[in-house]
Each structure stands twice: as C-alpha cells, then as structure tokens.
Amino acid sequence: MAKLIVSKFGGTSMGDAECMLRSAEVAYRQGSSMVVVSATSGTTNDLIALGKTAESQSWSEAEKIISKIHARHVKIASDLNLPTDLLQALETLFEEMASLAKGIHLLKDCSVKAMDALMSLGERMSSVLCTEAMAQVLRKHKDAKSAKLVDARDVLRTDDAFGKAKPITKDIEALSNKHLGYLRDFKTVVVTQGYIGRTEEGMTTTLGRGGSDYSAAILAEGVSADVLEIWTDVAGIATTDPRICPKAKPIDEISFKEASELATFGAKVLHPATLLPAIRKNIPVFVGSSFDAEARGTWVRKEVTDYPLIRAMAMRKKQILVTLSTPEMLHAHGFLFQIFKIFNDHKVSIDAITTSEISVSVTLDDSTLLNKRLIADLSEIADVQVEENLTLISLIGNNINHTPGLGKQIFETIADINVRMICLGASKHNFCFLVSEDQSTETIQRLHKKFVEA
Ligand code: ADP
Ligand code: ASP
Ligand code: MG
C-alpha cells in the first residue's frame, strides 16, 4: 500500500526558483502527498524588520523593505513563469503586506497580533511559488497527480498566544479529516505553509521562529502520515552543528528521546517541539538535504539499533542564570512551589535547575529579562541575582547518568574552562552545564574531538 508522506522544506530549500524546482523534484521522487514550506530564505527576518520599521520609522524606510521582499518574490515568479491565477494570488499577498505595514505605520503600533499577520505572508508567498514548481515537476514526469495549494490555517488551529501559538491537536485532527481526507486517494500533492495557524476566532498566528518543522509534524499527525521528512541544507542530523565543528559526522539513526533532547538543547536543525507529534503517533522522521537528496540522511525513530553513550552535542546560546536566595528557605517547605508558580504565571520555561539549602539557580533564555514584571515578582520572595552571556552545553546519548567516570572525562577535557553550573541526573540522555558564551565554541570543539572524532 502506498505510504502517506509529508515533506517539509526549509528556507534555504526555497531560496530561489532553482531551489524550489530541486525541492519539488525531491518531493516527487519521495512520493510525497503533502509539501510543507517555509518562507523563502531571509523573508521572515525582512518581515519582522518591516513591522518594526513601519512602527517606528518613516514610511519611505518601510517601503524599501517592501520593495526588497516584493522583488525577491517577483524574480522567482518570473523565473518560474507563474500562471495567471497564481500570479494573482501573489499580487493579493503583496497588497496585504502593504496594507498591514501601512496600518502599523499609521497606528505606530506593531502588536504581536499584527506581527503574526505580517510574518504569515512569508510562508503564504513561498507556497504560491512552490505550488507552480511542484506542478512543473509533475508535468515533466508526465504524472497525472495535480499540485494543489492549501491554506494551512484552515487546518492548523491554535490558541491565541500570538508569536508562539500552541496547536490544538484535537481540532486539527478533525479539520485534517474535513479538509485533507482526499490525500489517501494519492491523486494530489498538496503544497501548504509551515509556521502559521489560525485561532478559532479566525486570527492568524505563528508557532515561533523555526516553527515550520513543528507545523509539518502537527500536520503529519493530523493526517496520520506514515513518514515525516524534514528537508534542509545539511544531510541530516550531525554529531554537532557542522558550522561549529567541520568534522561533525551525520548520524544514520537516532532515537526519538535523544533527538528531542538535542532539539530542545539547541540543535537548530529541528524545532524543539517537532518530535512531540511524531512520538504521539509513532511516525518515523527522516532528516535530509534537499541539495543532496542522495546522501544518507538521518532516521529518527522510537527504536534504533545502537545506543552509544555519547551520540551528539549541542549548545544553547544567550542563556542567563537566575539565582534566587532567601534564608527563609532553610528547613522550610513550599519555596520551590512559590518560585515555579511565578514562572508559570509568566509562562516562562526553565531549562536547567540546581538547588542548595537557601538558594535555587535556574537557566532561562536571555529574552526573559525583557519581562521586568517577572523579575519584580521574584524579587518579592527572594534576593535575585542575574548572570548573563552564558551558554548551555549538552552532551546527548544513552545511560549517561549510570556511567562511572564520564564526568571525569568531560571535565578533564575542559579543565581550564570555568563551569558555572552542572545538571546531571534527571535524564539518562543528557548531561548539561553552563559556560561563558565566549568559551562555548571552544568547549564544544574540544568535547567533540574527545568523544566523537577520537
Ligand atoms: P531550515 O531553514 O531548513 O529549517 P535551519 O537553518 O533551521 O534550516 O536548520 C539547519 C541548520 O541547523 C544547519 O545548517 C546547521 O547549521 C544547524 N545545526 C545545528 N545543529 C545541528 C546538528 N546537530 N546537525 C545538523 N545541523 C545542525
Ligand atoms: N519562516 C519561519 C522562520 O524563519 C519558520 C521556519 O522557517 O521554520 O522562523
Ligand atoms: Mg529550521
């Protein structure tokens, strides 16, 4: 029986007409039924700049960004010789971009809601172009299937947490059945957008930066896909970011648990939430390069054949360490509860935590500092100290918390680097610690040499 495959292509895979045609060719050869696309490379950043510029600068400055985005898409449209109906759809999106920017400019207010509407245009524009690329590839292969553009927002229902909206799985399943039930006939290749969704009230949302991977996984879950493919600019998940260590090796196979830790702790190749839907429905995930589709790539599965002690490493930059101290914690209970309640009220998630008798240290993304109310609330119950410019380094593998001597090997390798905090024990797949940002690359390079290259 044919397999239902959902394939996601990232921004660089949508870079220009050639990239789009190459990606469509990959989707064709894989037998994909659903192609989920990111905005063309750089466009989401440009749209954010447009929102901010329209809010705070002159209209002519905003117009410059509009022209840049417009030109990029018009060039691809002309290279692909876009048919009239798709050209019209693209024009409508250009008009929407200009109207939204004008509204933001007149009000001098770019709310998160407005920003989501503006950012959604990146994926909506690229999907129009990619629909034509897909149609051309199907024609070239004399394939009777048709390429169909679908608005992901009709299916991807979210809450109203603009900028980082949460998909509502139950609704998405029902909406997938309603709008995408025909996929199992295998007569259509749907092209749709990653990253964007819609609230029940009809407002456009986004899932947070890099969210197209997550969208593809959510949609794969919604249509009960057999395989989810993430096509990017590297040939799979590597032992660490190849930009940090050129000797990073592609991983053939990795378990859901390890890959989830890797994504959560900073490996940009997968959005942190991507594997949650895949785990829920046990959908195997393939990660490969749209530029080199023949390369082996990585399979992420529930069960794999080997479980090495150290499989990979990652880093998460821009971390802060917040230390809360109060003598009242001595022999008292309920303090952790109070702290977590405050973080919960502010919807801030903590990555690593250590405690002593009278203090608790937690690591957070540095953007948390923008939330002055959070720091003020914490200050009401404890003395608060914040250290900035830190990086969380993680070693990912198996049986990490039951292996004698591992800590010694790690810290011998970086004996001259100050380790600000260590977290070990909670997960058998992860050993993480904090170092200063300017020593983070060196730390990863040395550990990679010791545990992977050796
Ligand atoms: P896309 O636009 O396709 O979503 P991203 O830029 O978000 O692509 O993710 C791919 C990038 O992730 C790679 O170019 C690479 O630099 C980075 N990366 C970080 N860690 C890893 C890793 N362990 N393996 C592979 N790539 C990684
Ligand atoms: N276009 C969005 C971003 O740049 C989503 C994605 O590419 O995954 O963050
Ligand atoms: Mg990405």
TrEMBL record:
One of its GO terms (molecular function) is aspartate kinase activity. Residues 3-288 form the Aspartate/glutamate/uridylate kinase domain. It catalyses: L-aspartate + ATP = 4-phospho-L-aspartate + ADP. Residues 393-451 form the Aspartokinase ACT domain. The keyword Amino-acid biosynthesis applies. Pfam families: AA_kinase (PF00696), ACT_9 (PF22468). Belongs to the aspartokinase family. This is Aspartokinase. The lineage of its organism: Bacteria, Pseudomonadati, Bdellovibrionota, Bdellovibrionia, Bdellovibrionales.
